[in-house]
Amino acid sequence: MRARTTIISLLTLGSLMLGSFAIADDANAQHDRVREACPGVVAWERNRIHDHLPTVDPSTITAPTLRGEIMKMAEDDQAVRNISPKVLASEGSAALEEVNKVDAGNLAKLRQIVKDHGIPTPHMIGDKGMEAFWMLVQHADHDPLLQQKVLTALFSDSRGLPLNEIALLIDRVQINRGEPQTYGTQFHREGGKFAPDPIRDSSELAARRKSMGLMPIVDYECVLRATYNER
What we know:
Elements (H helix, E strand, L loop, with lengths): L3 E2 L11 E2 L2 E3 L3 H11 L1 H9 L16 H16 L2 E2 L1 H33 L4 H17 L5 H13 L6 H14 L10 E4 L2 E4 L8 H7 L5 H11 L4
Parallel strand pairs: 3-4
Antiparallel strand pairs: 1-5, 2-3, 5-6
Helix pairs in contact: 1-2, 1-9, 3-4, 3-5, 6-7
């Protein structure tokens, strides 16, 4: 499976994904660097329309044990992905093996969670729990059927996730099924440069991205180049 680059909640979570890895860096310095290199991002941040999603009082969630399990899985996911560029360059293969090992364990747990509880809701595991669950499903690339099952649930009920995060999962599922992506969020390395995975009907891409709260594709690509010092 070809490694892809996915930007997750850009300038919100403070984590930029490179293939399987999140580059460990000071979030504020990283954001400043991106903004300086990509002025279009500043304009987009200023004018973007935010989703106004209801929040769940953590004290009212109905499945706190499940939430704890999912949060622990997410911690494990990020522990093997938060890696410096220097370490990634020198120990890339070993680091990737560790990522694959954690992902395999989390995937087995995800399958059991969905079997036992169905697709969780914010009322079950809270807003943070849903964010963690979504991230884990994003990384469940070896089970596109599970990803599709979650996506189907999101189509009927966003489960408290903003549109831009749903768009990321839509693209991820499409690429994993060998189909062109809809929103242009999935990238791979090609000849040392970032290149988007195939996109359907690219003439309508700008409108589709805007409808899901995603920045223009030219700014998205600029962020990738600025983040990883690609010229």
